[in-house]
Amino acid sequence: MMLNIKDLHAKVEEKDILKGLSIEVKPGEVHAIMGPNGSGKSTMGNVLSGRPGYEATAGSVTFKGHDLLEMETEERAREGLFLAFQYPVEIPGVSNMEFLKAAVDAKRKHQGLDEISSVDFLKLARETCKRVNLDASFLKRGVNEGFSGGEKKRNEIMQMMLLEPDLCILDETDSGLDIDALQVVADGVNAMRDGKRSFLVVTHYQRLLDYIVPDYVHVLAGGRIVKSGDKSLALELEAKGYGWLENEVV
Amino acid sequence: MTDFQQTALELAAEQQTPVWLAALREQGASTWAAAAWPGRKTEHWKYISLAPLQQCEQLGWSSESDDVALDAVEQVELDAIRLVFVDGRFNAARSSALPAGVVRFADANTEQQALIQQHLGKVVDSERHLFAALSNAWAADGVLLHVAPGHKLEKPVYIVNVSTAQANPVAASQRVLVVLEENAEAELIEHYASDSASQNGFVNSLTEVVVGNNAQVQHYRINLEQEDLLHVGGVHVNLQRDARFHGFTLAQGSRLKRIDYQVNMLGEGAHLELNGVYLPRNRQVIDYHTNVEHCVPHCTSNEVFRGIIGDSAKAIFNGRIHIHPQAQKTLAELSNKNLLTSRTAEINTKPELEIYADDVRCAHGATISQLDETSLYYLQSRGVTKADAITMLSFGFINELLNQVPEQAVQDYLRPRLVSLFGQPSEMVGQIGYE
């Protein structure tokens, strides 16, 4: 099992958001999480990645056999969990290059490998830039500093490619993207689908799922999964909206 | 008169000095002797104590220039006109041959003496700057940098001032005068350093810069001294019409370090760009005072100062902008951001605006904060440890200013040294070769 979330409850600033979330993700599977605004989609990603202020109050999360909730944020990342942020953070003064190298080295160190040489890393980073259609000059700039919305999202995908995580959580990576950028993101994700790596794709729009075809679709509402199905569920949601499901919650 | 004022005057009497500086020295000595010693109630010395100076007993001049000390100090790797001073004494062996426009006061010809007499002590107002009066009283050796109209100094002038630890504390007086005629250009790097961890000396430094019509200067003042040195210094600048001053300053070390920047906008279209970084730690105290006098219309000034204060260190930043009634269409900006990395660190920041003209744009801001939680989380979510993330963000906070330093050699010199201050291996930050 890649990820096993059982009856997870979580609160943010004293407000209960997740109220009994359960999902099982096996290696190689792509799960789409859909749901209306405020249903807890982003909270789920934040709790899983260990964002300060997002507190799990009950339930359990097992990641590759480890108790995820007991791990520090950075341990989760090194163990292979990756969250592509909905709103990537701008950090002026820290160059994208040094940030990416620090991240890659942290993972290598965890795996008992030496730090990657600067020359090798530069080569790798440039190739990866090309794959997500970012100019190599972005490596020199501050982390996400002055990047457009689409550039920030592509930078997230680039990090994902460099870190080669086992579990990728995409938090509304498609929001605010035009079709071309969406295609780049989807191509990046699809290229990383290797039958072992798992994905949790959180999205507000069915559109993304035309490009990244999921094995399962879940609807999150009121802090828990109210309906699961295959990719046809997404189309049904597109046609009928979420209203009919929210009525089923109670 | 306090003991220290008395000691300083006795030291002045011991100096052997050129006759043509006598008038300035006498004037300086009398201003110094008559001045009320600043205390806690003196506005511009409110947050910094001068007590360490009063405790500085048996202060004397250095008797010889120490080559060994020089080897302990790494210099900026730069093809430059180099002047090296140790404890205030010129070290000819370690200095470059000087071109026509660069001369020590001691070697000045009649014309240069006249130029020095015309400007030295005239850019600075020694009635308002006590330690400028002391510098005048101690005026002896110094460096004149004079660039003729329409000329550009081919190489940067790099002045290295090294303080050494001595049995008895040593006083050093550093004096620089820059005179750029119309359309002239020059770059000057002043580097203050010390040879070892234990320092007991006192440095009083003063730089005066006259920038003529449409002339421009790039000026650096790097203060990387060690823990216990005492340093009071000032950079005083007159900008004539369309003149431009691009300054960068950095300070670390010293239990008493006070640096003043005074910039007078005297001609229309003058422009000031001044970035500063201060990084006191342990029990260091660093005090920057800047004052920009906008006296005429259409001038612009932009100051950005950032500080990271750790341990039980203390920093003071006072940024004054004075816009005179006739200085319409002034654009003046001042930003001061501070990062406190310990509960016992202290920052006193005060932007001071005095605006007497009505058609001006003036923006100022000062912030004091800890590191941004979201940025920390972002780095950690990529596997970077919290300690490394803190280091990266702290360094990033000042690296933004370092990235803007036009002289690459200065960037290359400072970056690894600052990185090591934050306890990080240097290959991790900014040392990756691009292209």
Instruction: Calculate Rg of chain A over CA atoms.
Output: 18 Å
Could you spell the SSE succession of chain A in H and E letters?
Answer: EEEHEEHEEHHEHEHEHEEHH
Number of discrete domains of chain B: 2
Chain-averaged pLDDT of chain B: 92
- Residue windows where pLDDT falls under 50 for at least 5 positions of chain A: none
- The level of helicity of chain B is 10-25%
Major pleated sheet of chain A: 6 strands, mixed
Shape of chain B: globular
Topology:
The complex is a heterodimer of chains A (250) and B (435).
Chain A: E1 3-12, E2 15-25, E3 30-34, H1 41-49, E4 54-63, E5 66-67, H2 73-78, E6 81-84, E7 91-95, H3 96-110, H4 118-131, E8 142-143, H5 149-163, E9 167-171, H6 179-192, E10 198-202, H7 208-211, E11 216-221, E12 224-229, H8 231-240, H9 243-249
Parallel strand pairs in A: 3-10, 3-11, 6-9, 9-10
Antiparallel strand pairs in A: 1-2, 1-4, 4-5, 7-8, 11-12
Helix pairs in contact in A: 4-5, 5-6
Chain B: H1 3-14, H2 22-34, H3 51-54, E1 60-61, H4 67-71, E2 81-86, E3 89-90, E4 102-104, H5 110-119, H6 130-137, E5 143-147, E6 157-163, E7 170-180, E8 185-194, E9 202-211, E10 216-224, E11 230-239, E12 244-252, E13 256-265, E14 271-278, E15 285-294, E16 300-309, E17 314-323, E18 331-340, E19 346-355, E20 361-369, H7 373-380, H8 386-402, H9 408-421
Parallel strand pairs in B: 1-7, 2-6, 5-7, 6-8, 7-9, 8-10, 9-11, 10-12, 11-13, 12-14, 13-15, 14-16, 15-17, 16-18, 17-19, 18-20
Antiparallel strand pairs in B: 2-3, 4-5
Helix pairs in contact in B: 1-2, 2-6, 7-8, 8-9
